[in-house]
Write a structure and sequence with these properties.
The chain has ten helices and eight strands. An eight-stranded parallel barrel has the order 1-2-3-4-5-6-7-8, surrounded by four helices. The protein has about 300 residues and is α/β, with parallel strands linked by helices.
């Protein structure tokens, strides 16, 4: 139901995006301390050996990591790699976003991830932009076609969406505003992604929708992330992880098998790439990359 391609080649026997070459990318977050920065540099050097299409770098709500995001992005560029900083609606003003866009353009950055973001506790107003489509539209108005813009997609639907149809239409508004492609929230249910792509195609969406992949290193962390963002941990996975208790080696081994199988199925079915949420750790992502024999 979506473009069929091999990890290293062009799509064949596809319904859309016939010339799309799969893109494999890695997400980082800005370190908060000098020690964290040094650890990230070392981890990033190992990740760079994988030759990802780009590194994306997250952006705290209200610009709370604005300077650190820019510093990390510029470091990545100086190392000779492509970087895609995140921009968030929450807590942002038109002037602050305009200033950030000017900085990124001055540094030759041409790739952004535009997100609504989550309203932090205690923040009463979301800012000048209520939704990501408004942010995308503003970026296009200010900068034309300078940036390639990624947006978020939710195969299991955004937790605040009133209905699946509302969520689908909200996604379409972001693309109509000028986004080029999308990265999904992580998921472990292949059918959720396949169904979401099918639904997108029925309303004329034919942009690359790259699956977000979360390696599994800790059950407690994964459960907390998933509860916060609405990602489902299938019952059979949850039960197996619970059964390992504090056996971190078994959790990691089982997680690698689960995520490898999911990625293999996604690529065999024609997913236009994979985007790994690394949490600034390289070991599991590198192992997955090698297992999948990604280019």
């Amino acid at each position: 139901s979506f473009p069929r391609c091999s990890p290293g080649g062009k799509a064949t026997d596809s319904l859309v995006m016939t010339d799309h070459i799969p893109a494999f990318s890695l997400e980082l977050f800005p370190p908060q301390t000098p020690e964290g920065a040094e650890k990230l540099r070392a981890a990033r050097a190992r990740m760079a050996l994988l030759k990802p299409r780009f590194f994306s770098v997250t952006f705290g709500a209200g610009g709370s990591t604005r300077d650190r995001t820019l510093e990390t992005v510029l470091e990545i560029q100086r190392e000779g790699h492509q970087a895609a900083p995140h921009l968030s609606c929450i807590g942002s003003t038109r002037d602050s976003i305009r200033s950030i866009l000017e900085q990124y353009r001055a540094q030759g950055i041409r790739h952004l991830v535009a997100l609504r973001g989550d309203l932090p506790s205690g923040m009463a107003r979301p800012g000048a932009f209520r939704y990501a489509n408004e942010l995308v539209e503003f970026i296009r108005t200010e900068t034309g076609d300078w940036f390639t813009i990624e947006v978020a997609a939710y195969p299991e639907y955004h937790p605040q969406a009133r209905s699946p149809q509302d969520d689908l239409l909200a996604f379409k508004r972001k693309l109509d505003a000028g986004a080029n492609s999308a990265i999904t929230q992580y998921f472990y249910n292949f059918d959720a992604y396949a169904h979401f792509v099918d639904q997108c195609q029925t309303i004329g969406i034919d942009v690359p929708i790259v699956p977000g992949i979360m390696p599994i290193s800790s059950y407690s962390s994964l459960a907390r992330f998933s509860d916060n963002c609405g990602a489902e941990i299938p019952r059979w996975i949850r039960k197996r992880l619970e059964s390992y208790a504090d056996d971190s080696a078994s959790i990691r081994a089982f997680g690698l098998d689960v995520v490898t199988g999911l990625c293999e199925r996604l690529l065999a079915s024609g997913a236009p790439g994979l985007h790994f949420y690394t949490l600034n750790q390289d070991a599991l992502t590198s192992t997955l990359w090698q297992r999948l024999r990604l280019p």
